[in-house]
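Table S2 (text version). Query chain:
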Amino acid sequence: MNLLLTGSAGFIASKVAELLLKRGNKVVGIDNLNDAYDVRLKNWRLKQLEQFENFTFHQLDITNFAQLEPLFKKSNFEAVVNLAARAGVRASIENPWVYVNTNVTGTLNLLELCKRYKVKKFILASTSSVYGEMDLPFAEDKKTDFPLSPYPASKKGAEAICYTYHYLHGIDISIPRYFTVYGPGGRPDMSIFIFTKKIYANEEIPVYGDGNQKRDFTYIDDIAEGTIKSLKPVGYEIINLGSDNPVKLSYVISLIEDGLNKKAKIKYLPRHAADVSATQAEIKKARELLSWQPKIKIEEGIKRTIEWFLENWKWVKRVRVG
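Corresponding structure-token output:
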């Protein structure tokens, strides 16, 4: 296939690109390389992808329609995989405008270009955060009208406009909702990256709440595989991608301690109002519709993540976290 992959220097998109490229697909990647987090990680990921002859990169912003259109006009894309986003619950409270601009307007721009240039398949990356605080497990048919921060609110808006373009223009759309993705080369504003780096450096780690909150941590390779499987024709579907095995944050910290053979210095902070007590994905639809099943358990995933940290510590130690 010939695909456009947005956010290609990002954590999830770079792994999706790697798997697609290894399978012989042509991937055109775009990313604005913003400094929402340390660009050293984005540059490292891009460097891995630029080794593939079937990968082309353009530094473009999905919020700029005029920048995007020439690429669509000349490329004859078969699918668009939109993984470009502003992510993060707490950061969205600080600057909600950039979240709406990237996640809603950026998605609208891509959908409009798919309509104009007859791109038949569109994938939108969404988030488990749209579920807010509700009974477990989170199933795709549950009501998601009460987002707890601008980040999930913007993703909910993007999901809604995707349905509009499916309904009006017949674009086939898959929307995977990701559950707490982690792994090698991850985002430095996420807990596992922060904890691993700080524990190894003998620095204090921040824990919001008492550490008993549960998250459905899902390994990056499983998420990337599920995203690629979402390229199949489905009409319009929202599909959870999660491990379906939530674990306590305190257990994850203990795994990192064991893997590094170091004891964490923990600073407990008040729970944030936008944080939920637990997440858990109902993944029946992913199993049935995509024949997808998560393979990597949290113990193995943390082990692989720590190995990556140690192999790359020479430059990772300078990466800003939080």
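Notes on Table S2: The longest strand covers residues 172-178. The longest helix spans residues 96-116.
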